[in-house]
């Protein structure tokens, strides 16, 4: 029979055991409460928007953040981490702890980055788990209020005849406005002077101020200026006219069916995030997209929430992979031409 340990040794062992238990508890707390997916969420969630505040993606994010927060019972704190066409913020999200406390809201640029950046620091498919799609936003072709053409057909002719002097703004390489510009110049067979800005806000300010001629951008960023008469609007890049701008013709009506693009947005988490956490985020997203306030806000800006079957990881993942393949070819052709 093994003799009992002296009392002082038993006390020391108990003390060390208590310290070990405390260390484990502190480690769990320091992970943001994410060690137990069943208890998620227990703290505020950071939502990274890889573009500047006030831009279209930021606007969409803030629309859904409040009802998602109400559903989850915590705050969703938006952090704008812009730069390099959204790749800075996306890269930061890719390397975040996979505990559900860092979420990325990105647009179509998630699918174009592999073709635009040879040294991309992350893989949009391998390094992320999709949470669900949010909305698909039409694009509009707008110009400074005193730009010479009055109709879309006149715009096309004017741009083709004055390609050496016309300037086209966009919100940086890889931005939605940049991609739409690539489609437009390819369809019209012109090589224009592109003027990049650090976000859609500065680009719009320069259009309104008359410093640059035109831009192609999302309705979430242009509808207010169009209805206020601050810019001249030529066309919407969807097959049908949109309710928010019923008098604005489509590019197809104007004889340019190849200039069609809309910008989808979706939520992502780091790839190793537990599926149980992803399910909770997807559920909160679906609640937010059914919220009448969100529906009304999006309608005012010329867009709408996606259907419930699109606000899922499966539908999101399928669209992402399809769009990576599609845009890879378009960008390669544009850069090679």
Mean pLDDT: 88
Sheet-strand content, in percent, reads: 15-25%
Beta-strand segment tally: 9
Largest sheet: 9 strands, mixed
For the terminal residues, how far apart are their CA atoms?
Answer: 87 Å
Q: What is the 3D form? A: globular
SSE class: alpha/beta
Order of helices and strands: HEHEHEHEHEHEHEHEEHHH
Regions with pLDDT < 50 over 5+ consecutive residues? 1-34
In which range does the helix fraction lie? 40-55%
- Helix tally? 11
Rg for CA atoms: 24 Å
Give structural notes.
By secondary structure, the chain is an alpha/beta fold. 44% of the residues lie in helices and 18% in strands. It has eleven helices and nine strands. It has helices at residues 7-30, 56-72, 87-94, 109-116, 152-161, 176-188, 200-209, 219-227, 275-290, 292-300, 313-336, and strands at 45-49, 76-80, 102-106, 128-144, 167-170, 193-196, 214-218, 231-236, 262-270. Strands 1, 2, 3, 4, 5, 6, 7, 8 and 9 form a nine-stranded mixed beta sheet that branches. Helix 2 crosses helix 9 (275-290) and helix 4 runs parallel beside helix 11 (313-336). The longest helix is centred in the N-terminal third of the chain and has 24 residues, at 7-30. The termini are far apart. 46% of the residues are buried. The model is unreliable at 1-34 (pLDDT under 50).
Brief summary of the model shown:
The protein contains eleven helices and nine strands. It has helices at about 5-30, 55-70, 85-95, 110-115, 150-160, 175-190, 200-210, 220-225, 275-290, 290-300, 315-335; strands at about 45-50, 75-80, 100-105, 130-145, 165-170, 195, 215-220, 230-235, 260-270. It is globular.
């Amino acid at each position: 029979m093994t003799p009992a340990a002296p009392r002082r040794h038993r006390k020391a062992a108990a003390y060390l055991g208590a310290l070990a238990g405390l260390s484990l508890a502190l480690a769990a707390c320091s992970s943001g409460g994410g060690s137990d997916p069943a208890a998620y969420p227990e703290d505020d969630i950071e939502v990274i928007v890889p573009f500047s505040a006030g831009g279209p993606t930021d606007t969409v994010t803030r629309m859904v953040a409040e009802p998602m927060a109400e559903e989850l019972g915590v705050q969703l704190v938006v952090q704008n981490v812009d730069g390099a066409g959204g790749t800075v913020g996306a890269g930061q999200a890719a390397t975040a702890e996979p505990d559900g406390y860092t979420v990325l809201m990105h647009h179509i640029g998630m699918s174009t980055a592999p073709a635009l950046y040879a040294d991309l620091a992350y893989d949009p498919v391998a390094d992320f788990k999709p949470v669900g799609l949010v909305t698909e936003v039409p694009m509009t072709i707008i110009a400074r209020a005193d730009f010479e053409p009055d109709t879309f057909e006149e715009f096309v002719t004017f741009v083709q005849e004055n390609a050496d002097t016309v300037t086209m703004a966009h919100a940086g390489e890889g931005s939605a406005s940049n991609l739409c510009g690539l489609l437009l110049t390819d369809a019209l067979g012109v090589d224009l002077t592109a003027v990049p800005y650090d976000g859609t806000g500065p680009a719009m300010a320069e259009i309104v101020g008359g410093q640059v001629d035109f831009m192609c951008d999302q309705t979430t960023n242009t509808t207010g200026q169009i209805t206020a008469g601050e810019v001249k609007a030529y066309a919407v890049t969807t097959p049908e006219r949109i309710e928010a701008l019923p008098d604005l013709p489509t590019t197809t009506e104007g004889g340019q069916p190849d200039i069609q693009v809309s910008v989808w947005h979706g939520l992502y988490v780091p790839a190793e995030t537990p599926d149980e956490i992803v399910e909770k985020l997807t559920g909160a997203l679906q609640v937010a997209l059914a919220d009448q306030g969100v529906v009304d806000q999006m309608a005012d800006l010329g867009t709408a929430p996606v259907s419930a079957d699109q606000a899922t990881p499966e539908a999101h993942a399928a669209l992402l992979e399809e769009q990576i393949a599609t845009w890879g070819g378009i960008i390669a052709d544009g850069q090679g031409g």
